[in-house]
Amino acid sequence: MSAHPVLVVMGVSGSGKSTVAALLAGQLGWDYLEGDDLHPAENVAKMSAGIPLTDEDRWPWLDQIAQWISDHAASEMPGVVTCSALKKIYRDRLRLPNVIFVYLSGSKAEISQRLSARHGHFMPTALLDSQFAALQPPSEDEHALLVNISHSPAQEAAEIIQRLGLGAH
Ligand SMILES: Nc1ncnc2c1ncn2[C@@H]1O[C@H](COP(=O)(O)OP(=O)(O)O)[C@@H](O)[C@H]1O
Ligand SMILES: O=C(O)[C@H](O)[C@@H](O)[C@H](O)[C@H](O)COP(=O)(O)O
C-alpha cells in the first residue's frame, strides 16, 4: 500500500458512500472530497430529471476526480473521495498507484429503502435500476476492499480502518 493512500469509496447511489467516507476522513484526519460536487450542472440536471448518465457524461467528471487523486499523490497527501465508479473502465481511469477502492456492497432492496428515506438530495430512487445495470462489481484482481453495508456507518468505518491497517497511523 502507498504510504499516502487515497481511498475511493465506491458503489451505487445510496450505498452509503458519503456517510461512510466522511466518517473515515474525519477519523483519519485526511482530506475529503465529495465526488458528486464535481458533477457539472448538466449531469445533476439529467439525474434530477431521472435520466441516467452516459459514459460521455461521466468521463469529464471522472477526469476531475482523477486529477484530485493525482494532486494528492504528487503532494504525498492521503485522502478519501466518494465516486460511484460503477464500471471497470471508470475505475481504470482512477487507478493510480496511491488508490485503494473501498466497495460498499448491498442489495437493491436495502439500498432502495435507504434512498426512499433520504431527503434533500437530487438523485431519485427511480435511477437505482440503472445504477445496478451499470454496476460491475470489482473483480478479485482489482484488490478492492468489499464492505457489506448492512452494518452501521460507524461499524463500517471502523472495519475499513482495521482491515486496511490504518489505525496505527
Ligand atoms: N450503514 C448505514 N446504515 C443505515 N443507513 C445508512 C447507512 N449508510 C448510509 N445510510 C443512509 O442511507 C442514505 C444513503 O447514504 P449516502 O451516504 O447518501 O449514500 P451515497 O453517498 O452512496 O449516495 C442516507 O440517508 C444515509 O443516512
Ligand atoms: O455515475 C453516476 O451515475 C453518478 O455518479 C451516480 O452514481 C451518483 O450516485 C450520483 O452522483 C448521485 O449521488 P449519490 O451517489 O450521492 O446518490
From TrEMBL:
It catalyses: D-gluconate + ATP = 6-phospho-D-gluconate + ADP + H(+). Keywords: ATP-binding, Gluconate utilization, Kinase, Nucleotide-binding, Transferase. One of its GO terms (cellular component) is cytoplasm. Belongs to the gluconokinase GntK/GntV family. Its EC number is 2.7.1.12. It is an enzyme of class 2 (transferase). InterPro entries: P-loop_NTPase (IPR027417), Shikimate/glucono_kinase (IPR031322), Therm_gnt_kin (IPR006001). GO terms for molecular function: ATP binding; gluconokinase activity. Pathway: Carbohydrate acid metabolism. It comes from the Bacteria. Pfam families: SKI. The keyword Magnesium does not apply. NCBIfam families: therm_gnt_kin. One of its GO terms (biological process) is D-gluconate metabolic process. This is Gluconokinase. It comes from Psychromicrobium lacuslunae.
